[in-house]
Amino acid sequence: MPLSELIKSEHSFLNTQHTCRDAITLMEDEMLQQMPLLDESTQHYIALIQYKDVLDWQDEQQLLVHTSLLNYKPAILANAHPFDALKVMRNNELAILPVLDKQQAYIGYLTQEDLINYLGQQTAIQQEGAIIVVEVAQKDLSFAEIARICESEQVPIWSMHSYIIPETGRVEITIKTNSVHVSGLVQSIERHNFQVTAVFGDQSRDTDIEDRYDLLMTYLNM
């Protein structure tokens, strides 16, 4: 799914004629913590105004463009991948993310909910199948080898994603399979010197509900 299919435009936006009081009123009316500020003539994106900042501003009647609130400009281009958009949103703790064209004109915005729903579709999180979490040194990382092992055990893969652990520099690989019986695959992976750190959804093993919930939350927040 291209990013363009996730872009919304129904919320209002701020322009250079708006004061801090206007911004507070609009954000309260639309229940938003952030709202883009645009040049009304060109629709170019100027900054992302945050409710907490304008609420603390000493002069509510001052025009937004005459404040020092214009340095915060998180945004993403419309041709970017949704994964990149989710990363920007998480790094900046955003409720909405402005989307721009190549000329920096405002197109609309993205929401975390839509991006997470997209991530769930792309990672096949709703499909039946166990999840195996593997840890490996970066120098030993081989997606092809892992795929070959899964194929040899006749366990097809729905999706496979990696994450570099900041504390160790090792790579954590999350494998979503299409089988709920993966004990044999786990043993095969371990025989090939990959460290299996967790297995979820394997009906041939005892896995409690709390562990499954914790994995789902971790998986959606990758």
| Rg, Å, rounded | 23 Å
Count of helical segments?
7
CATH class of the largest domain: Alpha Beta
Strand order of the largest sheet: 8-9-7-10
Compute the number of structural domains. 2
Distance between the termini: 19 Å
Instruction: Summarize the amount of helix as a percent range.
Output: 25-40%
Assign the CATH superfamily of the largest domain: CBS-domain
The average pLDDT value, as a whole number, equals 85
Q: SSE order, as H and E?
A: EHEEHEHEEHEHEEHEH
What name is given to the CATH topology of the largest domain? CBS-domain
Question: Which shape, going by the Cα principal axes?
Answer: elongated
Strand content: 15-25%
CATH-level-2 architecture of the largest domain: Roll
Q: Structural class of the helices, strands and pairings? A: alpha+beta
